[in-house]
Write a structure and sequence with these properties.
The complex is a heterodimer of chains A (438) and B (266). Chain A is mainly alpha-helical and 438 residues long. Chain A is built from 18 helices and 3 strands. Chain B has a single domain, classed as Rossmann fold (3-Layer(aba) Sandwich). The chains are: A mainly alpha (438), B alpha/beta (266). The complex binds adenosine-5'-triphosphate and magnesium ion (MG).
């Protein structure tokens, strides 16, 4: 034992022996691998998010023309005597704008024609305003007017003078008017409430399209998913984990549940089409059918999470309860289930988040984007009226030709991500709150 | 010597057997953990089970309140009767049995709830208290019996899992006595306790014996000698010797018992 020069006990504590040095290098190398992996993952995440936000942010704003317009009482009275009243207001407004942006260099009639393409028919709006508020006459009134989607695209740089083809939507002369209005500081950006709260619009009107109705559709679907899948999944898991005997039959069920979790979602979609719509005659394209389909899809996820959570409860807790004369049901409901609750909640929210982002099965049961045309008018119709859901709406927009919809699709993705992130945050908060030590 | 024999016989024939086990075998899958054991647990007496680690003391103890039912691979055969009634009979509800035969487990297993909730759980599910005041009384009495009251009386609503190992063990004892079982099975209840707490628990055992029977598994020969009237020595799944504690410790008939209590095997 005295000749054991290799023995760690013999060397000084501050001098590394060969073995320790090797171990330390291995440890450093492993740490470097881990750090690299994390850095790569974070970089990709940052790239992803910046791309999404850059492409999607314009969907949340709209370009407006804000002008302090003054209408005098004589002008008003004269206009009200005309046969084509709104046209007269258009001309008055165009004249005001022409003066403001060009000191009379541009022709009033040409400006009026351009403004009609850039802002739509503003005369009606102006007339309505002054008829309702005669007191505003002779004083400047700030009018905020939405621009057409083509004008917006020009301002965003998606259309340039070189690529512009004169059409009934936009001409080269209009671009001069736009540029001059921009120089005069009339062009502003405002929050696009239509996008946040509106319904889907026609294929030629990306500016009027909103995701609000699809959000409601998703909401009702998630309600159905939660109400259907959570109780069923928890009951099934408790039975399988705590009560069922271990035999070939329960093994078979277990294998089937794991397999079910791996079934492509489109299969659930076609199943829903066959069973819920063609056989059970539930209303097509309705959130209730979508919810049922997604509930089927979510069941295995929640079951697997719940069983894992139940398994993680130490058996000694069950022994303690049973040893005191609690029945099995009491042991489960008084002790095991509360301890498993955080895991179950997390699994449920992850399952819901998955369902929220699912597109394919919804397309099969007809929940495509363009059916999301109006808000449901009540609780029941929320479940039964034809509607779409966020991802299906995004998919529909992305497949439309008008580039304005491309931007809307990115904006929709941002909304979807916000919902998913908040659900994950809720999951984390719930887990933290209910977490217990033993 | 003669007196003693007569006394022994009287003990054995008197109708004071609480639990009688005959020909008990326990298998864990293919492991034969308990081999043909016959034991009579007397009423109002303390019986201790001693023997080397892994010899099956806990396993046999768990047969007495059918806790082995909860282990899938475990199979129990033989005849175990409590007050003359077969506890493994179909019509016997193990839940009811366990309310009468309480258990303190080898590893402390408090519920991750407050100290108060730990102790009150048993009385609550058995409907032993009608009012909050009654429950408070049961909790205090049980914690006093478990020699824990003074340490926790100011933090009854702190989590039971936040106590030290020895305190948790006493909490589990308090929890078990709170349901007033007729038989209390204690699996190494003092393994993590200091001498003072041990003495308090032994006092509790002595007190419980006035009304109930107590079975205690212990690795301490002194403890077995101190608290129990009867001692069973297990070895490799066999019940080697069973009799009066004094006789087992002073005059064992089997050489294995003698080697064990004198510290030569184990
Ligand atoms: N749940 C189980 N599954 C399989 N085998 C088990 C199980 N519990 C105990 N055994 C086996 O049964 C035998 C007896 O175990 P038991 O726990 O009864 O021993 P013990 O006498 O209580 O030991 P100790 O003094 O260490 O607590 C051991 O060989 C053990 O391996
Ligand atoms: Mg043991």
């Amino acid at each position: 034992m005295t000749d054991a020069t290799q023995s760690p006990a013999q060397g000084s504590l501050s001098a590394y022996d060969a073995h320790t040095a090797k171990r330390n290098t291995a440890e450093k190398r492993f740490r470097a691998y881990g750090l690299t992996a994390i850095v790569i993952a974070l970089t990709l995440l940052v790239i992803l998010f910046t791309t999404i936000i850059r492409s999607g942010a314009p969907a949340f704003t709209r370009t407006v023309v804000e002008i302090d317009f003054t209408l005098t009482t004589p002008q008003f009275e004269a206009a009200e005597k005309k046969l084509l009243k709104t046209k007269e207001y258009n001309m008055l407004f165009a004249g005001f704008v022409a003066d403001a942006i060009s000191d009379g260099a541009l022709d009033q009639a040409a400006v009026a024609a351009s403004l009609e393409r850039i802002l739509g028919k503003v005369g009606g709006d102006i007339r309505t305003h002054y008829r309702a508020n005669p007191g505003d006459l002779d004083t400047p009134v700030a009018f905020e007017l939405s621009t057409s989607s083509r004008a917006e695209q020009y301002l965003a740089g998606d259309i340039t003078r070189d690529t512009l083809v004169d059409s009934r939507f936009l001409t080269a002369a209009d671009l001069d008017v736009i540029d001059r209005m921009k120089d005069a500081g009339f062009i502003k950006t405002a929050l696009d409430t239509t996008f946040l709260f509106g319904a889907d619009a026609g294929v030629d009107n990306p500016g009027g399209a909103g995701i609000g109705v699809a959000v409601i559709g998703s909401f009702f679907m998630m309600l159905v998913v939660l109400v259907v899948s959570l109780p069923v999944a928890v009951a099934a898991s408790i039975y399988l984990e705590e009560f069922a005997p271990q035999n070939w039959f329960t093994d078979l069920i277990e294998v089937n549940i794991s397999n079910l979790a791996a079934v492509p979602s489109i299969v659930f979609g076609i199943l829903g089409l066959a069973v819920f719509i063609q056989f059970a005659h539930l209303p097509q394209s309705s959130p209730i059918v979508g919810g049922l389909v997604l509930a089927l899809m979510t069941l295995p996820t929640i079951i697997i999470a719940t069983r894992a959570a139940l398994k993680a409860v130490p058996p000694s807790i069950r022994d303690a309860a049973l040893g005191l004369g609690a029945s099995k049901t009491q042991a489960v409901f008084h002790h095991v289930l509360p301890l498993a609750a955080p895991g179950i909640l997390t699994g449920t929210i992850i399952g819901l988040a998955q369902a929220l982002g699912e597109t394919a099965p919804l397309l099969l049961i007809g929940m495509v984007g363009f059916v999301a045309r109006e808000y449901p008018d009540g609780l029941v119709s929320g479940f039964t009226d034809a509607n779409s859901a966020m991802p299906a709406q995004i998919y529909t927009w992305a497949s439309r030709a008008d580039p304005g919809f491309y931007e809307k699709a990115w904006g929709g993705i941002i909304i979807l991500l916000i919902f998913l992130l908040s659900m994950n945050i809720i999951a984390i908060i719930l887990r933290k709150r209910f977490e217990r030590r033993w | 010597m003669l007196d003693n024999t007569i006394y022994n016989e009287r003990l054995d024939t008197m109708n004071d057997v609480k639990i009688s086990a005959r020909g008990v075998n326990v298998f864990y899958a293919d492991t034969h953990a308990i081999k043909d054991v016959d034991v009579d647990i007397k009423d109002k007496m303390v019986t201790s089970f001693i023997g080397p680690s892994g010899c099956g003391k806990s396993t046999f103890l768990r047969c007495l309140n059918r806790m082995n039912d909860t282990i899938d691979i475990c199979r129990v055969t033989g005849d175990i009767r409590m007050d003359g009634q077969d506890i493994n009979a179909k019509e016997v509800d193990p839940v009811q049995l366990r309310a009468k035969v309480g258990m303190v487990f080898q590893k402390p297993n408090p519920f991750p709830k407050s100290i108060y909730d730990n102790v009150s759980y048993g009385p609550r599910i058995h409907g032993m208290a009608r009012t909050k005041a009654e429950m408070d009384e049961i909790v205090e009495k049980s914690l006093r019996r478990g020699a824990l009251w003074d340490e926790v009386k100011d933090r009854l609503h702190a989590p039971g899992t936040g106590l030290s190992g020895g305190q948790q063990q006493r909490l589990c004892i308090a929890r078990a006595v709170a349901t007033e079982p007729q038989v209390l099975l204690m699996d190494e209840p003092c393994s993590a306790l200091d001498p003072i707490a041990t003495a308090q628990i032994e006092e509790l055992i002595e007190e419980l014996r006035q009304n109930f029977s107590v079975v205690i598994v212990t690795h301490s020969m002194q403890q077995a000698a101190r608290v129990s009237q009867r001692t069973a020595f297990f070895h490799l799944g066999n019940l080697v010797e069973y009799g009066e504690t004094g006789q087992i410790f002073t005059n064992p008939t089997d050489s294995r018992t003698e080697s064990y209590i004198t510290g030569r095997i184990g």
